[in-house]
UniProtKB/TrEMBL annotation:
Superkingdom in the source lineage: Bacteria
Record flagged with keyword Transmembrane helix: yes
Species, as recorded: Amycolatopsis melonis
UniProt key word Membrane: yes
Biased composition (Low complexity): 86-121
Polar residues bias spans: 76-85
Record keywords: Membrane, Transmembrane, Transmembrane helix
Region annotation (Disordered) ranges: 1-21, 76-144
Protein name: Uncharacterized protein
Amino acid sequence: MNEEIVRRLREAAEAHQPDRDRMLARVHRGMAGSAVRQRRPGIARSWPKAVLAGSAAAGILAVAGVAVAGLVQTTPAGPDTVTTLTAPTETSGPAPTTTGGSAPAPASGAPARTTAARPSSGSPDPAAPRGGRVSDGPLSARGSIDPHSTVYWAQGGVTLDTTQPLTALTVEVHVKQTGDVRSTGQWQTAPGDDFTVTAQDGDGEVVYRWELKPGRTVPAAHHVFAVQYNHATGVRSADGDSYRVQATAADGVHTVQGGFTPAS
């Protein structure tokens, strides 16, 4: 059996005719594949070098950037302008004050304005502040010019408070004749039938008068007595005007008088 196999192999080897062209083609293909396989490792080995070179360049640029940023931050910017704050200077002298509705006190160094009282029965008490509230027993009163007064017309009012009923009451308002002063009326919050009301010109003034009729009583309450009049065109001063109130209560006769504050 073995001899037979050997014989057949020998006969096949002797009958074989080699193909030279096919052998050369296989050799060329093998050589080309070997060249490709040799170049690939070279490229792989050169890649880390390129990476290291790029990293080194980036590190140099980063260090340079940090140095420039440090120079920019450590160099202070000069101010464009210089601002100087000045503390306000305090002025000497007392602050303006008001007393009982009177006008503010004049500034330091300015002369104070005074008003001389008229020697008449209707002139205000010189000791009482002009237009301020005055009182006597159960009576308390104050005079003022209505803020709705105009350059042609004005209204003055006397507010009267009493804590006791009054069995007798006389209210007088004296309006100085400052030019074309003419009465246009008067009114009161108490019933008109309880009073005798008059308005008369004379002695350089217009005198308004309310007199409680006999047998009538004014209750303890808040009352208003108002006068109205025309005057010369312009802002009229009420410095020369005055009022006087005389009343009888259970404890006797009481009197209050004063001037008028200007319209606010």
